[in-house]
Amino acid sequence: MDFLALFIIYLLLVLASVVLVCIYSGRKQSFPARGLSCITQVSSSVIPTRLQRATQRVLHRLFHTRSCLFIVLHLALQVAVYGEYTWEVFGYCQEMEFSIHYLLLPYLLLAVNMGFFILCSVTNPGIITQSNQESFLKAYAYDGVMFQKSTMCPTCNVEKPARSKHCSVCNNCIHRFDHHCVWINNCIGAFNTRYFLIYLFTLTAMAANLAIITTAFLIQVVLLSNMMLGSYIDDQGQEHAVEILFLIQHLFLTFPRIVFMLGFVIVLSLVLGAYCCFTLYLALTNQTSNEWYKSRSYECSCCQALQPHDRHIVYRNVYSQGVWVNLKEIFKPPTSSEKKKKT
């Protein structure tokens, strides 16, 4: 069972790595980040100071300055996964007479995904400058709670339009700021949110599609070999019927690279699927990640200040105009020539 234990540890490490990347690439003051900060404080008494400072410099360089490192990592992971799929899974599935259209679907998703990945990376998300700030100031009305009139950005020296935020990574104020994505090395704002949505959904579909095809291949291997009808002898010489754990260990030993890839894409599918649901919720309710987080903080601060019988009061999103209008705004952001949304 040593190989099974190794495989389980591998899955846990993959999941931990994805979660850590999500934490570091998200907002610095989010709940997971605060939890990570507590862990860091506890570990500071054990880890040498020099190592702590070196780690902090590396993390700051990775997650708080613009870098192409994650783009390279993104492409390397895709090359590794698709290389394994093409080299082994595709050929085996052809021998088992899987539908060729079904096997080519991941490549179609890859082409679409790469196209929108490039669009996300190179499109101006809505950088606010002194020359264009007037047009952005007319796009949205101020809600008077999260966004106040006549607020200046001390770094960019511009008046901050409603729904904008200064990105410390890009060092720019961004119109309808959502978040800074390290995987595309760009901010997600008003003018590339639509590309990011399609990029995210196709990436999730790619991972899920590869997981389904690989799982179907392994199931077919088991069925054709009649392995479930057999038995095995353990170290004590006792005979046992084939169980799921033994079956996983056997597949891991027979197709190690394929099983490793399957574990990775399954974890990736689950994480991306959850993030897709959250992103779709934000799109349907006309919120950004920045606004969603601020609204949670606002509600918490209000609840602490109010009396117990008044704590049912919640922040109202004044920018939501209904599902279809909200989706239309994602794919056709409002300009200065359009009417302001009313509070």
UniProtKB/TrEMBL annotation:
GO molecular function, one term: protein-cysteine S-palmitoyltransferase activity
Alphabetized Pfam families for the sequence: DHHC
Compartments it resides in: Cell membrane; Endoplasmic reticulum membrane; Golgi apparatus membrane
Reactions catalysed, as given in the entry: L-cysteinyl-[protein] + hexadecanoyl-CoA = S-hexadecanoyl-L-cysteinyl-[protein] + CoA
Membrane topology: Multi-pass membrane protein
One of the record's GO cellular component terms: Golgi membrane
Record domain Palmitoyltransferase DHHC: where: 148-295
Family per similarity comment: Belongs to the DHHC palmitoyltransferase family.
Name listed for the protein in its UniProt record: Palmitoyltransferase
